[in-house]
Amino acid sequence: MKQRLDQDTMAMRAAKELKDGDCANLGFGLPTLCALYVPEGIRFEAEAGILGYGPLIKADEVEKADWHYIDASGRFTSPAPGMACFDVIASFIMIRSGRLISIMGGFQVSEKGDLANWNTGSGMLGGTIGGAMDLANGAKRVIILMEHNTKDGKPKIVKKCTYPITAREAVDLIVTDLAVIEVKPGKGLVLKETAPGWTAKEIQALTEAKLTIAKDLKEIEL
């Protein structure tokens, strides 16, 4: 069986999209790992009310943890020079301002960039939609970081979302354990990068939505 990217490598690739001067909000779960690979000049914003925090506290650094500084997944973050703390109201003003880049997880993304990331429609709720709707609609760029397929092998990149929609035509880029895919309005999904050892044909076979192959298609680089 071919090797897929592990979660840390996926997070490193997503974090590579961030450029000097960017402010980014990292969603629950896998996206919070991006804070372990903070590019120079990037400021991360947490929904609870922190801007400009440093890397996550690792398991062997628990003595450094401070309950005042947590991210969307409840993981401890480290303070950094210039970090600001504020209330949730101010946080959502930022989130809706069009100034942040949002890196979120997803259950499904459609060929039009529709996002479903809070409820599978199975009746088993892990929570409510929370700030996902605001982030998906209010960010200047939305990057979805997720596995390419479900645990039972079903596609998560689909023609049409069958789960409750978080936001329509909101996704700009998808980073998975197999590929980097750009969502182009009116043109659909463009396969830009593949995991090492994987072909475009193999990735298409695991994707319900049609992929257009980029002329400069290449393997994922970190």
Can you walk me through this structure?
There is one protein chain. The protein is α/β, with parallel strands linked by helices. It has a domain at 7-33 and 98-219: Glutaconate Coenzyme A-transferase (3-Layer(aba) Sandwich). Helices cover 14% and strands 24% of the residues. The chain is built from four helices and 13 strands. The longest helix is centred in the first third of the chain and has 9 residues, at 7-15. The radius of gyration is 17 Å and the shape is globular. The two termini are 23 Å apart.
Cross-sheet strand order for the largest sheet: 4-3-2-1-5-8-10-11-12-13
Examine the secondary-structure arrangement and name the CATH architecture of the domain at 7-33 and 98-219: 3-Layer(aba) Sandwich
Low-pLDDT stretches:
none
CA-CA gap between termini: 23 Å
Radius of gyration: 17 Å
CATH topology of the domain at 7-33 and 98-219: Glutaconate Coenzyme A-transferase
The residue fraction in helices comes out at 10-25%
| CATH class descriptor name of the domain at 7-33 and 98-219 | Alpha Beta
- The count of DSSP E runs of length 2 or more, i.e. the number of strands, is 13
